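Q: Start with the shorter request: fold the first protein.
A: Done. Sequence, then structure:
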Amino acid sequence: MKQKFKTAFSLIELSVVILIIGILVAGVTQSSRLITQMRLATARQITQNSPVSSINGLISWWETTSEKSFDEIEASDNSVISKWYDSSPTNLNRNDLVQTNSTKRPIYIATAINGLPALKFNGSNTFMQTPAYSPDLNSLNFSFFAVIQAFNGMPPIGAILCTRGSSRGWVLYYTPTSPSVSLLIGNGSAWVAATTNTAVTNLNKTDLISINYDTVNAKIYQNTNNIANFSASMAINSTTVSSIGSNSGCDSADQYFFSGYISELIFFNRSLKNDERIDVEKYLAKKWGLKV
C-alpha cells in the first residue's frame, strides 16, 4: 500500500511557521524603530550644530525633535500635547506654548515630516498659545521661520502664528488656494496685507516660510524664494496672547484653524541680515529634508 502524502501542516510545523513569522515581524519592527531613532539622533545633532543660537535676537525656538520639547509622558506617537517648551538657549523668559483644554490639544506624530516628529493640528479646534501676553514676541521688527505641511482639504484660512490685538501686531496665514501665504500687519487702525502674487500652495508637502520685517518693509519667502514684498508701519500688540494653529486668543472668537503639521518655529526680535536668514533656512532645509 502506498503511503499517503501529507496534505496539511502538523501542529508542530504550524507552530514553527508562526514562530518564524513572528521573528521576521519583530525584526522588521525593530529595524523600523532603529531607523527612526537614527533619524532623530541625526536631527538633534543638526539642531545642536545649527547657527540659530549664535544669531543675535533669538527670542523663541519651538521644535519637535529635542528631548526637552515636550513632557516625556506625552512625547509618543498619537499622544496629545499639552505644552510645547521654548528651547531658546539665549532668552531667560521662555515662551512656552500651552493648551489647557484636553479636547483642543494637537497630536504628536512620531514620523510626520522626513521621518521626524511634528504636531498635527486638525483644522477645526486645535491650537496652542502663550499663557499670557508676551512682550518678547511683540517687537517693532522681527524675523520668523516656520516649517509646516498643510493638509489637502484644509479650511480656507489657517493661522500659523498670530500675535495681534484689534488692529495691532501681525498674523501669518496659510490658505489652500491662491494666494497661499498671507502676512497681515496692523497699523493701529487697519490691516495691511501682503500676499503671494501667484499660486504656490504645496498641499501635503513640506513648506519653509520665512518673514523679515524691519519696521517698514516686509519680505515673505517660501522655500527660500522671495514671493512677496510690501511696506507697512506696525502698531505693537500690547494686550493679547500669541497663538499658533489659529487666531484663538488673538481674536474675540476662535477661528482660522490650521490643518496640517507644524514642526519648527523660530522667532527673532530683529530683522535678520540676508546672510543670517539664509543660514537659518539652510539649517531647516537640511534637517527637514527640503529641496530648496
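Q: Next, the second protein, separately.
A: Sequence, then structure:
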Amino acid sequence: MSLFRYKGSKVWTMDFVFHGQRVRESTKTRNLTNARIIERNRRQELEEGSAGIKKAKTGILFKSAAEEYMAAETASLRPNQKGGHASTVRIDRFNLEHLLPAFQNKLLVDITHGDIAKYQQERLRAGAAPKTVNLELGTFRSITTESGLWARLVPKIKMLEVEDDIGIELTPEQQEALLEACSLSDSRLLYPMVMLALETGARSGTIKRLTWGKVDFLGRGLRWGKDKTKAGTGRTIPISSRAMAALEVWAANFPDRKPTHYVFPRETYRQPKDGDTEGSPYTTHPTIAVTSVERSWRTAKAKAAWIVAGRPDSMEHIEPLECRMHDLRHTAVTRMIKAGIPIPIIAQLVGWSTSTMVAMTARYGHYSMDTLRRAVETISSGSLVISPVSGDPEQSSRKLTN
C-alpha cells in the first residue's frame, strides 16, 4: 500500500518510487477508493510523460504558472489560518524568490532537465544548502505538475544528497583572515555583510533584505525583516559592539540614507582611471537589495587562504578557504553552543522555531572528546552528581543520601 496519512491529516497521501525518484503527493481526498484511483492516474501520467506521450502545455510562462498556483493556494486558506497549509504557502513564496529569477521568462515547454541541473549548481555556488535547493524544487514540482512538465522531467532529475552535517565551523584564525580579505575587496559591502553574519548568525538572505530603518544605533540592536521561518521573521535582537562598529563605519558612506533604503544595496564598481580622483567609483542603487556577491566572495576566500598560509610570495597551489555563506551562520551558532548559551536564547537570536531546536542542536553542536568525556564522567556514579545550585559534588551526594 503506497497511500498513507500524515499524523493529524484527514486526506490520503501517495508515496511511491518512479524511475528511482520518490513521488510523495497529497491526493486531496479523504476517500480511500478515490485516493487509489488518483494514485493510479498519477502513475499513468508519469509513465506517459516518461515515454513522451504527454507534453507540457505550450505558451505558458513559468511566471504565469507560478502566479496561478500561488493564487489557488492562497485562496484555499481559511481566514486567520495558521500551521500546516499556511506554513506551506509561506515556504512556497520564499522559494519563489529564488526560482523566479531563473525561470520566470521561460516557457514551460522549453524548460529542460539541464536547466534544473544548472539551477541546482548555481544555488549551491551561492551558498544554499542541498536541503534548501531540494525544497525549492519541491515548489517547482507543485507549480509544474498540472501542466505535465514535471512528469516529463522527473526521470532525469536528480535531487541533491543531504548530509547530516551541512556546516563547517571556521577557526578563529580563519575568521580573522576572511574578514581581512573581505576588507580588501573591491566590493566594499562584503566586509560589513560578512561581519554581521559572523556576529549574529543570521541567514544571508535575511541580511541582504535589512533596511536602515531596522537598525537601532542608540540601542545597539536591529529588527530583522522577512526570514525563512515565521519564528525568525520580525525578531528584534541586540548585536555585539564589533558588529555595531562595522555598521556605523558602513553607514558613514550613506549620509543621505532613508529608513526604507537597504543596508546592503546593489552597487557597481568602476576601476578609476589614472589621474581620475573626482567622484566615487561606486554607483549605488539604495532601493534595490544586493542579490549576489559570488565573484567577490570567491576572491576573498582565495585571499583568506593565502593569509592563513602565512602570506607566501605566490598564491599558486593554495586552495581557497572552504567556506559557504551558510558556514558563517554555522560558525556563529556553534560558538554560542560551545560557550554554553542556552538553546532557547540561541533559537531567539538566529530565528529557529521551537520544534527545530533539538535538531539544530544536533546539527550545530561539535564537541571535543574531552568535553564529552567530562559529561559522561558526571553520571558514572551517584557520588559524582553535581547540584544545579551549588555545583558541589560532595554536598549534592549528601543531599541524595539524607
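Q: Describe the second briefly.
A: The two ends are 58 Å apart (CA to CA). Residues 177 and 304 are 5 Å apart (CA to CA).
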